[in-house]
């Protein structure tokens, strides 16, 4: 049976499949036309960031399972897959620690002005040590927007490791199942009280531009905004204005509305902005775990077993 991988994954996942007798095919491209051509005779596909709308899925006449290398689903038409009788699965919890650590890293990078300090120190600006313009996080309030597994892990690291106070906003959270150190708050209350806000929510019509000129103005002027969730949750033009005008103190983004980021993006000109290339969840450990998880999902479905983390129910289609 053929497993198509349009965008390559770690060897651990490919080896898992090869050891079980699958034909693993690395795609020759991940544009729609190429995927349509190469998915035609595939029994399974492992997805990364390429787009899988209904017409691409329909080209997979033999397709039984589409396994996501990660957890984001904004690039795949899950309903179309279900209608066609195709499982869609995610690699749940594989990058839990990786993304949470990255969010903490971006927060500390901003609090210590590390990008600027590193650059200027290399020029010999040793006097920066006496500028008293960097901050510790102990005693500060971290606002978590989205209390799924990654949001909760970020809260745990910040509370246990940095002694931060944690407030959270999630309309779907069950307060009885949250640790005692997370206090639920309304969205506006979180905006007004948090020293750092970290986003861990999916991109949906409801969350599009959730952070805009109006909501950014509700934040503390000393606050930092971190996004390791999805692009499109923040209006980047409004964020640029807020950073440029010191409406907020800084921002660190791992995800953007357009990826790769256009080098003309005005955010890239700011010293109170730090960037990473959507790699928060791509440590060696997380990448290996996601690759194996996706491969296991493929193997489960193609052998008639229920996959561990399905997001649809093709049996009812």
TrEMBL record:
<keyword id="KW-0560">Oxidoreductase</keyword>
<feature type="domain" description="D-isomer specific 2-hydroxyacid dehydrogenase NAD-binding">
    <location>
        <begin position="104"/>
        <end position="280"/>
    </location>
</feature>
<dbReference type="Pfam" id="PF00389">
    <property type="entry name" value="2-Hacid_dh"/>
</dbReference>
<dbReference type="GO" id="GO:0008652">
    <property type="term" value="P:amino acid biosynthetic process"/>
</dbReference>
<dbReference type="InterPro" id="IPR050857">
    <property type="entry name" value="D-2-hydroxyacid_DH"/>
</dbReference>
<keyword id="KW-0028">Amino-acid biosynthesis</keyword>
<protein>
    <recommendedName>
        <fullName>Phosphoglycerate dehydrogenase</fullName>
    </recommendedName>
</protein>
<feature type="domain" description="D-isomer specific 2-hydroxyacid dehydrogenase catalytic">
    <location>
        <begin position="3"/>
        <end position="312"/>
    </location>
</feature>
<dbReference type="InterPro" id="IPR006139">
    <property type="entry name" value="D-isomer_2_OHA_DH_cat_dom"/>
</dbReference>
<dbReference type="InterPro" id="IPR029752">
    <property type="entry name" value="D-isomer_DH_CS1"/>
</dbReference>
<dbReference type="InterPro" id="IPR036291">
    <property type="entry name" value="NAD(P)-bd_dom_sf"/>
</dbReference>
<keyword id="KW-0520">NAD</keyword>
<dbReference type="InterPro" id="IPR006140">
    <property type="entry name" value="D-isomer_DH_NAD-bd"/>
</dbReference>
<dbReference type="Pfam" id="PF02826">
    <property type="entry name" value="2-Hacid_dh_C"/>
</dbReference>
<dbReference type="GO" id="GO:0051287">
    <property type="term" value="F:NAD binding"/>
</dbReference>
<dbReference type="GO" id="GO:0016616">
    <property type="term" value="F:oxidoreductase activity, acting on the CH-OH group of donors, NAD or NADP as acceptor"/>
</dbReference>
<comment type="similarity">
    <text>Belongs to the D-isomer specific 2-hydroxyacid dehydrogenase family.</text>
</comment>
<dbReference type="InterPro" id="IPR029753">
    <property type="entry name" value="D-isomer_DH_CS"/>
</dbReference>
